[in-house]
Structures are given as structure tokens and as C-alpha cells.
Amino acid sequence: MYHLGLLWEYLKNYMKTRLTYRADFWVEVISDLLFQATNFIFIMVIFMHTESLGGWNQNEVVFVYGFFMVPFGVFSCFVNMWNFSERYIVKGEMDRVLTRPAHNLFQILLENVDPPSLIGSFIGLVIMAISGANLGLPFEWWTIPVLLLLTLSAVAIYTGIYTALTSLSFYSDAPTGILPLMYNIQNYGRYPVTIYNRAIQVLLTWIIPFAFVGIYPAALFLQRDEMRGMAILTPVVGAVFLSIGLLCWNYGVKRYKGAGS
Amino acid sequence: MSKSLEAGGSQENGKLLLLGAYFDFIRIRFLTMLAYRVNYYSGILIYTLNIGVNYFTWKAIYGGGESLGGFTSAQMTTYVAVSWMARAFYFNNLDREISSDIRDGSIAIQFIRPYNYVLVKMMQGLGEGLFRFLMLMIPGMVVAVLLFPVELPTDPAAWIGFLVMLFFSFLISSQINVITGLSAFFVENNEGVMRMKRVIVDLFSGLIVPISLFPGWLSSVLDVLPFQAITYLPGSVFTGRVQGVGIWNVLGIQVFWFLVLLIPIVWLYYAARKRLFVQGG
């Protein structure tokens, strides 16, 4: 309850700051949409030149993409730590966060909420609905609860991976170029992983499990039996990676001594 | 340099001194990057992964097919590898650096110093590029050649043409970054603009999809935009799709865009100096 109250206060604050810079708000929304549109163009271009991608047709790949957008939007809204190292470590704001009672990670996430990202999730749902209808996918009683569960699991995977990577800032104050590069890699989780070779498949499944935020869970709705087992594993992978991320974070905070500024 | 100082403060010497200062910006950035080189070893790995994923995606798209948009399967592999590795070189965060200078107000100090701010940023970008070329692009290319069936050009003209064009890729990409960064003067928070730029450059420069594979209307639009000069044109030379006199033509396109992009930069620079107000300070 305490945390929900905090969330509400921070959101109110967010609205106030955003209303000062109204034009930027729309630029950000449009840039998000454009980002999705370019990915969409890629899929369209691919299917101009081929009938199937590793045995998946255009509607299926578009459906997977729609699913991929849902957890990604939620994640980008609530977990937004791109400038963590610069803002909290280099400029020393971490010290301020640590003097307050709520958990430090929770505060940092709240200070950086980005609700416009949720628009991407809605578009993802629309894309799923349209391509799902094209494919004649059945809408069962379990569709919505399972979609919720898988979305939350995927968000947990993202959060785990990025929290672990961000906590590297506690050990080295050097500007690491890893985060933006990781951003590229997560996009590969929404194509049929079976087109890649063994090494990349293992990497995307078990090491940086981005296949679990796109293709595996989406396959469950597409009734792709070969990936059903993987789809069911999604919540487990989510729990494991979220725990790893939080452990890395808490350990990092314990080691943190301040930048002295 | 000290000798020229003794010779007295003639204008000639002042210019030399300034030139030396610009070179120092290249050197210092290079050395700063060198201090953090360990971070870039992971970069090699990740760029290789990018090439790998794209390679396998294209392999699946080709299936048994011979040629797509004028690319054979082998050319596509080479194109993918060289495009990503070129990006490893020309990529920089000048847009972020400039807009954070603008947002925290330190640009005011930079403007009163006796140098050209934009030129200094370009020099720092060059220092970073030099580092990326030696520490990221070259080793990355070696790894890519070992792992994937990349066909290196045999014609020396292709190599020379490619290297010259690669330099222009860097210039044009940095110019676009500078323009994006300076936009912070006009829309205080330009995070969205920067994100948009990044996506547009990656897609429309032909990094993700070679331009000849886009639908006809889109590729004819992209033909008159500067982005193709960053990835697609140098990549075409490296894969041997453009040869002989054609190399001069595509180089001409790059030079043309380099000159054209100077106009908005100069304009923004002067408009910005008039407009500058520092938020909070």
C-alpha cells in the first residue's frame, strides 16, 4: 500500500513536469511509434522477398511482433535506467536515494517512469488482434490470463537483465557501451530462433534469454507445438532472471561507496 | 609550438596554435577512449552477434533463392558484415554530448572560448572514430571473416574506395548527430528527436535492409536522402556491386551530402548563438 501510494505521487509529479514540456511529450510518442513502424517495415520488406521465414508466415511473424511490443511497452514504462550511471553514480544522486526509507531500486524506477511507452503495448495488442484474426486463432477463456502472466514474466526477464547490467555501474564508473548494444540484441528474440545456428539459439534462450520475451511465449497463442514447452517455461525464466538481477543490484548497492562529489 | 609562441603573437602563429589545439582534441579523445578500452571488448562480441543474427536471418530469407534486389547470397553476407563493422567505426554520441552541454548550460562557456564549438565536437568524434576503427572495427572484421563466409574484395580500387568512403560515412553520420544535438536549442528536451534519429539512420542508411530491397517508391525516396551515403553506398563498393567509374559516382554523392549538410549546421550554429538562454545555470 505504501509503495502504491508512492507510485501515485510520483506519477502526479511526472504529469506536472511533462506538462511543462508539452511539445517534447508528443515528439517522444511519435518517435516511439516511428520506431515500431520501422521494425514493421523490416518485416514487410522480408516478406516481399520470401513466403516464409524458417517455416513461419507473415501473419505469424507479425503476431509475434505484436506480442513482443506488449511486455516491452510495460518494461519501458516502469524500468528506465538508461542514464543511471551518469545521473546517480557520477553526479552522486545515489546518495540522496539511499537516505530515504523506500527500497533504492524502487525509488530509482519511480523517478524515471515513462508512461508514453505504454502506447506501444496498446498498439501491440491491436496488431495481435488483427493478425490473430487473419490467422483464425481461437480466443479461449485462458487467453487473457495467460497473456497477462506471460507479459509479466517477460517484463521480469527484461528487468532482470537490465538491472544486472546497470548494477555494473557500481563496480566501474566507466561509461559502458553495453546497454544500447543489448537493445539491438533483444530485437532478435521476436524472430523464429530456429533460423539461427545452435550457438545463437543457446545464447538467446539461456544466457540472455530474449527469445522468452518474443517468440516462445507468442508461439503458445499461435498453437506452435514445437515451442509449447519453452512457452510454459517463460515464468520460470522470468523468476530466475529477476532474482539474478536483484541480487546483483543489492550486492552492488552494498559495495557502493559514493563518487565523492 | 613553443617556438612559434616566442616568435611573437602574429596572426599566422595564432592560427597554427589553434590548429594544434584541434589536433589535441583528437588526441585527447583517443587517449580517453583508450583508457576505457576494456569496455569495448564486449563491443566486439556484440557486433559479431549482430552480424551473426543478420546473417542467419538473411540465409533463411534466401532459402534456395539466388538473388534478392541484385544481391547474391554471398554478397549479402559480406554486405551485412561490412555494414555492421562500418557502424562500429562511424557511430558516436555527439548528439547526446551536445544536447547535454546545452541542457546543463556548459555550452555557454564553450561558446566564449576561442574555438569553433562544432568543429571541436567533430574533432572529438574523430578521435573516438580513430579509436573505434583500430580497437573495434578491425578486430571485429577479423572475427567476422573467420566466422562467416565473407568475401573480401580483391580489387585494390575497391579497398581504397571503401576506406575513403568510410571516412565520409563518418563525416555525414557525425554531421547528422551534430544537427540532432543542436536541435536541443529549440526543443529543450530532445530525447525523442535523438531516438528518432538513431532509428531512422539505422533503417534508412541500409544497415538493416539494403536499400535496393525496399519497395520501389521507398527506395526512390531514400535515393534523394543523405542516409544511404552512410552505409549503403560504401557497402556497395566493398561488395563489388559498384566498380570502376561507379566508385567515383557514389563518392560524388557522399561529397555532395557532406557539403549540403554543412548548411544547416552553420545556420543552426548561428541561430543558436542568438537564441541561447541557459536554463537555471
UniProtKB/TrEMBL annotation, chain A:
Transmembrane segments: 25-49, 61-82, 118-137, 144-165, 199-222, 229-252
KW Heme (keyword) present: no
InterPro entries: ABC-2_transporter-like (IPR010390)
Keywords per UniProt: Membrane, Transmembrane, Transmembrane helix
Pfam families: ABC2_membrane_6
Domain of life according to the entry: Bacteria
PANTHER family recorded: INTEGRAL MEMBRANE TRANSPORT PROTEIN, SLR0610 PROTEIN-RELATED
Name of the protein in question: ABC-2 type transport system permease protein
Organism: Paenibacillus typhae
UniProtKB/TrEMBL annotation, chain B:
Transmembrane helix listed as a keyword: yes
Keywords: Membrane, Transmembrane, Transmembrane helix
Protein's UniProt keywords contain NADP: no
Superkingdom to which the source organism belongs: Bacteria
InterPro entries (alphabetical): ABC-2_transporter-like
Spans traversing the lipid bilayer: 38-58, 70-90, 130-150, 156-187, 199-218, 247-270
Protein name per the record: ABC-2 type transport system permease protein
Species whose genome carries this gene: Paenibacillus typhae
